[in-house]
Amino acid sequence: MTFIIWGRLNSHNVKKVAWLALEAGIAHERRDIGGPFGFTDDYLAMNPNRLIPTIEDHGFVLWESNAILRYMASQYAGELWPTDLQLRASADRWMDWQMSYADAQRDAFVNLVRKAPADRDMAAVAKSAKLAGEMTAILDDALSRQPWLSGGDFGIGDIPMGVSIHSWFTLDIERPERPHVRAWYEKLKARPAYAATVMIPLT
Ligand SMILES: N[C@@H](CCC(=O)N[C@@H](CS)C(=O)NCC(=O)O)C(=O)O
Asked: N or C: which end of the chain has fewer CB within 10 A?
């Protein structure tokens, strides 16, 4: 196999890459590493950040999930990455915005998913859920005016937030009603590649 995705699948950032590989029909092998699987010296030689994901495409090594998405779409799925620069930048903005969103949602996710009930900081969960819920108002407004974060069609601009929003809807937290975000999530759930790679147990 010449295209390898390195990383355990229950990682938000690995899900992004695995989802795009399926959407684009890229033949690949995914290898578990990180989290409970730990790291090998060979992996750390490719990615010294001690983070996942990393890809190897015929010997070309790349890390940073959003950079990987842009590379994969440019190389294998141009239809998912518009060439019009303003359309592209508008989609790209949501990929960067997701990193701020992930910061907001992190404490809720880490406490509720990765920690035992006795070890959870529920005040941090509430604060994080409130912040993430507030940010989804911005997403809801955008999705009231366009069907996808990438514009008129699905594209890689939808992928990072598509991964995060599954956690938002799945975590046991209070959520404000966001009808346009919910409608977009329903459309994502109907995509077989999303169901196979993103809608897996959070743990
Ligand atoms: N900016 C990096 C962040 C990568 C990252 O934080 N990955 C997490 C998983 S989502 C990780 O590697 N955690 C350590 C581990 O799983 O061992 C990217 O987008 O690829």
From this structure: C
